[in-house]
Specification:
The protein has 263 residues and is mainly β. Helices cover 14% and strands 42% of the residues. The protein has 3 helices and 16 strands. Strands 9-10-11-12-16 form a 5-stranded antiparallel beta sheet, with no helix packed on it. Strands 1-2-3-4 form a 4-stranded antiparallel beta sheet. It is globular and about 50 Å long. The termini are far apart. 38% of the residues are buried.
Length: 263
């Protein structure tokens, strides 16, 4: 290239830098949107237990998503809500924030707690990002508890603190103290067992996942997963029992191999 034009290498570096900056900003917007929606959005948002699209139903329990026009930005503003026979008004599970779409992937009712896996697509900027979270909500009362599972970006664009754990065939169990155990599989067949701790009974954020076990060739029975205050247990598909202490987990952070749990 002549004159003041960029070389191919420089142009590629500029594109990568822009993508990294966008991914970080979009993830921040998604996270902040859940915690505190824009005041104008709160004032104008009204819904009922008959609104939106049903995503999960069991008896009088209904989980549904509602998408409205965001008054400040003009894009869609998605929320996931829950109604039960005990509540006359919907309760919020996830607020996706401005320019968002919520894609529930799995629900499982365990006693009075509804566990879920949800992907939130953020359309801020030229390229969408789609982080996946896991969590639970008590169907009687209280806020949802949420924890990060996959940053929703390619490994080269993820921050070292962001997990990139598998998102296929996710199953979970909820401990009495509110912590969660998760078994998830990758398309390769590899499976990961991880735990997300709830710091205190009043916390709404689950801590980032710690990986307890990785089965590169799979062979774990997701339906067998259990968790108590100290231990996560499961069996193989051939019926062999296995377990790990919650305290023995390794953070899904650092290099891509750690972030993916080895899958």
């Amino acid at each position: 290239m002549g004159g003041g034009g960029l070389t191919a290498a420089a142009a590629r570096a500029l594109v990568i830098a822009s993508l990294v900056a966008f991914a970080a900003a979009a993830l921040l917007v998604t996270a902040e949107g859940r915690a505190s929606a824009h005041p104008a959005a709160k004032r104008h948002f009204q819904t009922s237990c008959r609104s939106g699209t049903t995503e999960f139903r069991k008896g009088a329990l209904r989980v549904f998503d509602v998408s409205t026009k965001e008054p400040q930005y003009g894009g869609s503003h998605a929320r996931l809500l829950i109604c039960t026979s005990l509540a006359k008004k919907p309760r919020l599970i996830i607020d996706g924030g401005a320019d968002s779409e919520i894609l529930p992937r799995r629900f499982a009712l365990q006693g009075t707690r509804l566990g879920f896996e949800v992907q939130t697509v953020a359309f801020m900027g030229p390229f969408p990002v789609a982080p996946t979270e896991v969590g639970w909500i008590d169907v009687r009362r209280g806020p949802a508890r949420l924890g990060p599972w996959n940053a929703g970006v390619e490994p080269e664009y993820a921050e070292p603190t962001e997990p990139l754990l598998p998102v296929d065939d996710v199953h979970f169990a909820i401990a009495p103290d509110g912590s969660m155990a998760v078994i998830a599989g990758a398309q390769s067949g590899c499976q990961v067992v991880a735990v997300l701790r709830l710091p205190t009974s009043r916390s709404t954020d689950l801590e980032p996942p710690d990986v307890l076990y990785t089965a590169p060739k799979g062979g774990l029975d997701p339906a067998s997963l259990t968790i108590d205050d100290t231990t996560v247990a499961w069996t193989t598909t051939s019926g062999l029992p296995a377990s790990a202490l919650r305290s023995a987990g390794t953070p899904a952070a650092g290099n891509p191999s750690a972030q993916t749990g080895g899958c």
